[in-house]
């Protein structure tokens, strides 16, 4: 009969199965099942199956498996399988082939991919055993479940975080603030991977959190908003019940202390003083004051009232709803002469009082306000505003009609002056005595002409006039900005400008100014200045023959001194312009003269000169451009000669036998580096230091010449090519090969002409070459050549 073996014994799950055929599922642990029994002498087909009560039909596989080999899940086995390879196991269902594979021979099931329980918790698979040859099922298809076993691979998270909460200030200990909740994606039915506990990381000792519920509570009583109104808490949720190795997540909780009315209003001072003019109109604001309340909003609203004070009904106080200030308003006019000081007691009281904080009270405060009335200079007041008087039309001029009387409200001793408003007495029929107020006739009266005269009397206080005495604190300056123009034909001694001065000061005796030319202009040869002794001065020319072309503008510094004590002076500049005038002396053109062409030089001639100059500039530019494009020589100057190039080949090496330092094959191959463009069948016409052999003879001789002659012919050939090439410098061959040849007295020092190693050579001749070769003579003169160069 078939059976299932789960992978891990602690997580077995027994489920009743009805008929599963003769299947067996194994995960490595034994399970209780009934084996088929064969009756003696009976074939397997006639076996009687016994009914099973329970079989295993679940496998378990660990999620997030990180091993390199496929994870073994379990084993399928059919009683029909005799181990001869005739039975093949087939796996279908969720994840078959892609996630789960089965060994068709053994029935072993493996997981080939990492599984995540949070993505899919279980897989339903179907197993079947078929004949390998015919693919005919030998067992009925059986279904089983592979359950993904959870590990702790997900940290707790706060889906609603970060949190914001508020709690009233002065709350008692343990007041609930907010509840946080964290979720864990791990399996809550397996282990403790999803069992979360809460703790507070930041925010102590002000707040605490319940480990299991996540409820945040106050940990200190009576926290004051006015001291600190905001707290930021960090709450941690940790799985595995907070044990070591558990994963954790955090969130922030911003707790704001909300305001309560726990602070009464308080005046900053016990006495306030204000001043007000007696002339302010009724309903004007006399003063503003405010009691401080640290609370906010409705908890800081207050009412003001006048508790006590003198002058009842004179002032009123209201509350400014925007600023919560007490506004004192004038109810009746003020009179400094009647009463100049008032004292008021003001009370400020909170509107919204919380009964639970009455012990913090009383929620009111009192202060005293002193209002000082300032005096205003009021006009005189008549005893009777309207006075009726009678007089006979026969009254003589000067007859007294009546008297008006007025007094000064500010001072009883102030003198009053009276006058008539002449707009009401145009014919001047009446007079009033300025000091006594007596009204009298000034003209004869005629009732038939005018029987009633309405006149207005002015009463004025005596006026004191204060005059500020002047001192000499301003220097004199020009009266105006002068624009002086002078004709070119002005004669010597001609007055060209008269100047005057002004001074802001007002001396009692009047102004007196003195004019002169400031140094060093006093000694100039063009102009002079004459003081006219009447606070003016004249500017005169000293010479004639002024020319605009020579100088069109003259600047004259004029010194002006007043007669004050001490005397003050200033220097003012007078600008004189030379002008071209007509016959009547009227200036026509002033200022500098533009340059004109000399007489006889026309515009065409000037253009021709400019064209020549432009042509010369173009030629110079072309010459400079051509010189820059010239090919730079290989040797830049004459100071560098061929001797400087010796350093480039000053390596004797091992002679002709040293094939590593020099490639001798290249020298022996005469056809290398021949330029096909150069004609070698023509003998160069340029004379050289060497006689060139014919081409055919030289080519034939190359094969029979020794090496030293071969190299000589090679160099001659290169010299010939250089002479033919017009672009090659004449010293190219010397620079490249530096072969001295037989033309040198000392012959060549190069290894190209060195003797063979078998010959001997004497170097005694080095001593005859002078002091430059003394060192070589000392080294080689007394030695055998074969010993040196062998």
UniProtKB/TrEMBL annotation:
SUPFAM superfamilies in the record: Cadherin-like
What processes does the entry annotate via GO biological process terms? adherens junction organization; calcium-dependent cell-cell adhesion via plasma membrane cell adhesion molecules; cell migration; cell morphogenesis; cell-cell adhesion mediated by cadherin; cell-cell junction assembly; homophilic cell adhesion via plasma membrane adhesion molecules; morphogenesis of an epithelium
Q: Which Gene Ontology cellular component terms are annotated? A: adherens junction; catenin complex
The residues that cross the membrane are: 605-624
**Name of the featured protein:** Cadherin domain-containing protein
All copies of domain Cadherin, residue ranges: 78-158, 159-267, 268-382, 383-478, 478-589
What is the first-listed, main subcellular location in coarse terms? other
Where, subcellularly, is it found? Answer: Cell junction, Adherens junction; Cell membrane
Single GO term (MF):
beta-catenin binding
The question of whether Transmembrane is a record keyword is answered with yes
A Pfam family in this protein? Cadherin
Membrane topology term reads: Single-pass type I membrane protein
SMART domains membership = CA
Q: Which positions make up the signal peptide?
A: 1-28
Q: Return the PANTHER family for the record.
A: CADHERIN-23, CADHERIN-7
Is Calcium one of the keywords?
yes
